[in-house]
Design brief:
mainly alpha, about 65% helix, 2 helices, about 90 residues
Length: about 90
């Protein structure tokens, strides 16, 4: 098999041989398959994270709805008496 360097030295202007082109295509395909696999892993991880964030958001929204429907006679967890000038942790 003649290499590109040998062809350049003898003045030949032929491009890569079919075998070289095939090897190059196989290398590219393998690299692309590896990249696609890595991207798939990232997408799966991000889907799980988004799902967890959506679950958390639903819980917060539900907690806010419950708080909004509480009447003034019901104490709110963590609330302080109005006459207490010093805020305290609940």
């Amino acid at each position: 098999m003649t290499t590109n360097d040998e062809r350049a030295r003898d003045g030949s202007r032929e491009g890569p041989s079919e075998d070289e082109r095939l090897v190059e295509l196989e290398v590219r395909a393998a690299y692309q398959a590896q990249t696609i696999s890595a991207l798939h892993d990232v997408v799966v991880e991000l889907q799980a994270r988004v799902g967890a964030l959506e679950d958390g958001q639903r819980r917060v929204e539900e907690a806010l709805r419950r708080l909004a429907t509480k009447g003034p006679a019901e104490p709110v967890l963590g609330a302080h008496p109005e006459h207490d000038p010093v805020p305290r942790s609940g």
